[in-house]
Design brief:
148 residues, alpha+beta, 6-stranded antiparallel beta sheet, 6 strands, 25% helix, disordered N terminus
Length: 148
């Protein structure tokens, strides 16, 4: 898999006002135990076509990062206009959230967080013009949800 890191070109205003914003800052993304992917433009068009304009993700394994991400997603998830989530004892294993449009653009949060501490948690933020139902169908093809 080829990872494209283009964070210098990604507009940082995309998640402003969301609790998850802190996980897409340089301070968080450049920690040695964090893996991040930021894409827009040609790299994302090759993968998603012109329906998605911004893709950002962070992958973590440390429990304190997982807990912080869980809290932020729960807080932002309250604002969602549509959501699907699976949780056990308050831990979100899988969450899909469609946030209110901003400047005519749909915004999505996806959380993949297995309850086992030895598996990575992945937080994804995507925005674009793709409508929620079409996005959900597309994302199910692109992101494997097993064993979620």
């Amino acid at each position: 898999m080829i990872l494209a890191v283009i964070s210098a070109w990604i507009p940082i205003h995309a998640q402003i006002g969301l609790k998850i914003n802190e996980f897409f800052t340089d301070k968080f993304q450049y920690q040695p135990d964090v893996t991040s992917i930021d894409m827009q433009g040609a790299p994302i068009n090759n993968q998603w076509g012109d329906l998605v304009s911004l893709y950002r993700s962070v992958t973590v394994t440390k429990p304190h990062h997982v807990n912080a991400i869980q809290s932020a997603v729960k807080a932002d998830g309250v604002k969602a206009t549509s959501r699907t989530a699976t949780s056990t004892d308050g831990h979100i294993s899988y969450g899909w959230y469609c946030l209110p449009k901003q400047d005519g653009v749909y915004r999505y949060i996806i959380l993949l967080s297995p309850p086992e501490n030895d598996k990575p948690t992945i937080l994804i933020y995507i925005e674009g013009r793709i409508e929620p139902l079409a996005f959900k169908q597309l994302i199910l093809k692109k992101i494997p949800l097993e064993p979620f």
